[in-house]
Design a protein that fits this description.
Distance between the termini: 33 Å
Number of helices: 1
Shape: globular
Number of domains: 1
Order of helices and strands: EEEEEEEEEEEEEEEEEEH
Mean pLDDT: 84
Structural class: mainly beta
Largest sheet: 10 strands, parallel
Low-confidence stretches: 1-10
Number of strands: 18
């Protein structure tokens, strides 16, 4: 739907995004994805890949996400306060700041990226079950408020 210009801050592996949350936009609530999203603004809520699809989440430099992310591919150049659960690849660029645990298939991290949390490679069913349980708890907590 939307095409973005190539942006060196978001990694070379993703150039087109179906949805872009602009710098002047704030979203309060969970996002359920079927494809890709680029976040330039603020998201307060979980960003979850639909079970039957493969999604990419890119957090641009200057953007802020407060919530957990579950997607096949996650690229962080901005600020994330939450956990990442990726079945494939997580890319942390030089301006990334993540406060939370990261479960990943493979990890790319540039010099300057900061993580305040644990790194876990998703090489077993335990990691997947743990991620699903954490996300389910986050969804229940969000629905209760």
């Amino acid at each position: 739907m939307f095409k973005s210009k190539t942006n060196q801050n978001l990694g070379k592996s993703v150039e087109n995004f179906e949805t872009i949350i602009g710098a002047s936009l704030r979203v309060d609530g969970n996002l359920l994805l079927r494809n890709s999203v680029r976040i330039d603004g603020i998201v307060n809520g979980n960003i979850l890949q639909d079970d039957e699809h493969e999604a990419t989440v890119a957090i641009a430099k200057g953007a802020t996400v407060t919530g957990d992310i579950r997607a096949k591919h996650v690229i962080v150049s901005g600020n994330l306060r939450g956990n990442i659960f990726s079945s494939d690849r997580v890319e942390l660029l030089d301006s990334a700041f993540v406060t939370g645990d990261i479960t990943y298939g493979s990890l790319g991290m540039q010099v300057g990226a900061r993580v305040d949390g644990k790194l876990r490679q998703a090489d077993s069913d335990f990691s997947v079950r743990s991620a699903e349980a954490t996300i389910a708890q986050a969804m229940q907590k969000n629905n209760a408020t």
